[in-house]
Each structure stands twice: as structure tokens, then as C-alpha cells.
Amino acid sequence: MKKLTISLIVLSLAVAMTGLALAKESPRSVEGAPGFRAEAVRAYMEGFEGAFPPDGWSQIITVPSNTWTQDFVATPFEGLAHAHVLWQDVTEQYEVLSFDYLIDTAAEEDHLVFATMGSMYWSSGGNFTVEVDGTEVYNFYNEFTAGNFVWDLVDVDLSAYNGQTVTISFIYAGLNGADHHFDAVSIDAGAPPPPPPPTNDLCENAIDLVEQDLETFTVDLCLANNSYNAADSGASCTGYSSNGNDVVYKIYLTVGQEFTASQQGSHDSAIWLATDCADLPGTCVVGADDTVTGGIETITYTADVEGWYYLIIDGYSGCSLTTVTVVFPPIATESTNWSNVKAMYR
């Protein structure tokens, strides 16, 4: 795990003895939860808000204390509740929630869409899969694309079953896996396409901070991609990798100008400053990743070369709606003379 305040020797011993590289229980809140889907009407929708198991669903239970239950504690994908299964390492688990549905392409009811989250690291032991009439159509261990306990939206094309009433099963099976969750199960024409990433998702489209003329602003990193990693060049200027979603801003600094910027989001933020779009990690001059989820990260840098500097708003992992604050104008710490000072008061 990241940023533990114990020695490397103790950490190595703990990992060797327990194998706990990632938490197995889901947090009470979840990094990067993207919120509910925006469609007003879905042909079929189950969010596990009412009776459990829901009306028309069946359940197979092998370990009653660790089977699928209704969860109001960890952050749902939408609504107030979702389905959650607990891990254990004593008895092989086979926990199933399933329902039947008539697949109808003409009615645009031939896609299964659902949200899921869990731990990729531990899913080699206890995995989450989805089956249609006994045929696997989704495998969490093989297909998951989000971070540890981060919601991921899955779209499965069921048009091959057009005209058939099928049994759709959500299965947690294995031993010594990790908690798992799913939510917002729908049958419709498919998940809406994701919104386009922000214009400054890539460095070549970096937004000029001076032209933007905002000292404090917000950016939704969950709309961006994970384009840059501070650790790609080896040693990281933040002290860690930065595998969160990121966007890029820029500012022109003269020699001796001091630039300060900070960011705060509900994910584990990271912020860094570089000089070359073609090699951001290799030209990083300062970075910060000193806190964990919800903390404020701040950098201050005095330019020793005149030119463009690129500010990467990033994260150790995940994404969130992030607040960025910059100091305007950059402070001139060198080459200040009496004429400059008088000019400030004209």
C-alpha cells in the first residue's frame, strides 16, 4: 500500500508474512465513483434499492455469512444501495444472483449493462463473472479496467440471444478473494458513449493558465484519461507513480519567477510541473504526492530557465472533481530592482 509510515524492512516483512498488497475489504467510500447513468428511460433497471433479492431474481447461497447482500454503506454506483459479497478463506464460495429476461433486438433490449468494482489483485482467488444460460460473458479478473475498488461500467452485447428468454447470472466464486460489488443492472440498447475527454487531456492542448485567468477552478478528472505517469522515466518527481486520470495546463515563466499551485480532490491527488510536452516525466522539475485521499498537494518552483512550463493535474490512482489553485502573478524572486518596484504602483 502507498505511503505507509514504517520502515522498508518492517514493510517487507509484513508483506512476506501476510501477502496483503491491497486491501481486501471495500472502503466506506469509493475513489472515482462516476455517478449514475443519465438516461431517463431504461427498458429494465435493477439498482437493489428495494427487497433483496429483488422481485424476479433468484439466489444460490453456499456460505450464508458471506453471500450477496444489500449494501447501503460503501458508495453505490447510483441510488442508495447495491449488491455486495464478503470474502472468506475457509469454504469455497459459489454465490449467485440471477434473473430471466427476453432478449429483443427490435425493441432495443439486447445489451446487458451493469457497474462493478472489486480488487483485481485478489480476484485470482475469488473472482466475479457473469453468465448467460451458463456461458460466461464477462470475467472481472480478465476484463476489469478501473482501479482498486473503483466503479467500472460494463456493456455486454446480447444480440446473439435475440428472441430467447435467457438466465443472466452474477457469480462470485472461489476462495480467499476480496469483497465484490455490482449495481445498476439494466437491459437496453447499450451504455451511452462516454463524453469526450476535456480539451487539455493531452499536453499539446494544454490550457494557458494566464489566458484562463482563474486563480481557483475545478476540473472533473473522471472525464479525462490516464495519459501521463510521473514515474515513466524511472525516478518520479512526486515520489510515486501517478496512474490517475490527468489534464495539463501551461504557464510561461521567466528566470527567477516563483510559481505555486495546489490541488485537492476526493481521490489521492498528485501534481507536477515539467518543461517538455514530448517527455513530461523526464523533464519534471517539481512534484507533490505527500497526502492520501482528500489531501491537498502543493508545489512551488522558481524558474531557472525561461520558457513554457506544463502543470499536470493528476493522481496516484483514480479520479474525482478536483479543485486547483494557482498564485497569480508568479512572484519574481530574482532580478528585482527599484524601477521594477516603482512600476508595480503605477
Write up what this structure looks like:
The protein has 346 residues and is mainly beta. It has two domains: 22-188, Jelly Rolls (Sandwich), CATH 2.60.120; 199-332, Sandwich (Jelly Rolls). 7% of the residues lie in helices and 37% in strands. It contains four helices and 21 strands. Strands 1, 3, 4, 6, 9 and 11 form a six-stranded antiparallel sheet that branches. Strand 7 and strand 8 form a beta hairpin. The protein is elongated, with a radius of gyration of 24 Å. It starts with 7 loop residues before the first helix and ends with a helix. Mean pLDDT is 86; it is low at 1-21 and 335-346.
CATH class of the largest domain: Mainly Beta
Number of helical stretches of at least 4 residues: 4
Radius of gyration: 24 Å
Average pLDDT reading: 86
Strand content: 35-45%
Instruction: Give the number of domains.
Output: 2
Measured between the Cα atoms of the first and last residue, the distance is 54 Å
The poorly predicted ranges are 1-21, 335-346
β-strand number: 21
What is the oligomer described by this structure?
single chain
Shape: elongated
- Specify the helix fraction band: under 10%
Along the chain, the helix and strand elements come as: HEEEEEEEEHEEEEHEEEEEEEEEH
CATH architect. name of the largest domain? Sandwich
Largest sheet, in brief, is: 6 strands, antiparallel
How is the CATH topology of the largest domain named?
A: Jelly Rolls
Which structural class do you get from the secondary structure elements?
A: mainly beta
